[in-house]
Amino acid sequence: MQGLDATIDQVFDKDGKLTSAVDFRFKNSTESYLLIQARTDKKNLTFQIYGKKTGWEVKVDKPRIDNVVKSDPTPVKQLDPKMPIGSEMLIESAQDGFRAQITRRVTAGNAVIEQETFTSTYRPSRNVYLVGPRPTASPTASPTRTPTATAGSPSPAASPSPPPELIAPTGTPKPVTPTPSR
């Protein structure tokens, strides 16, 4: 559901020092233990929570989306010297920013045990590509002076040029499109 998510994120400065961290947390408001089971199908990560039946019913309203901010689709390229020469990989795709509000109610019979409205704000994202270093031109042989051949003397051999396989490959960039998760 758009706007209903858990954020787990760490931000480091240029020296590798942790500057901020966001971590999803929740409180077990029952009087019993919980079992949390996680699984993945290589595209999605799913958590299931098991516990003693409480008789509670949980209802979540559809999200209210507002304050939409259009994304800038202009590609942003960031050099990554560890990537192969001439390669390119999409790591973030442009998505509009917005604010989402979701209300969740927990009831037992006709009694409302808990009601909360969650607000999440999403900044617009960009099309960000990591790019490998640019290919460099291979060195060419510098011209050498050779004596002029005179009649009856053998002519000097021309200096060999490097074989074509020694020229640095440029590679063909192949963007990878991740599945955006919100």
Question: What keywords describe this structure?
Answer:
disordered C terminus, 11 strands, elongated, 182 residues, mainly beta
Give structural notes.
The structure is a single chain. With 182 residues, this protein is mainly beta. The chain has one domain. The protein is 0% helix and 40% strand. The chain contains no helices and eleven strands. Strands 5, 6, 9 and 10 form a four-stranded antiparallel beta sheet that branches. A three-stranded mixed beta sheet has the order 7-11-8, with no helix packed on it. The protein has a two-stranded antiparallel sheet with strand order 1-2. Strand 3 (34-40) and strand 4 (45-51) form a beta hairpin. It starts with 8 loop residues before the first strand and ends in a 51-residue tail after the last strand. Mean pLDDT is 79; it is low at 155-182.
Largest sheet: 4 strands, antiparallel
Shape: elongated
Helix content: under 10%
Tell me the fraction of residues in β-strands, as a range. Answer: 35-45%
Number of helices: 0
Number of domains: 1
Query: Span between N and C termini?
Result: 8 Å
Mean pLDDT: 79
Radius of gyration: 30 Å
DSSP, total strands: 11
Ranges where pLDDT stays below 50 over 5 or more residues in a row are 155-182
Structural class determined from secondary elements: mainly beta
The secondary-structure element order is EEEEEEEEEEE
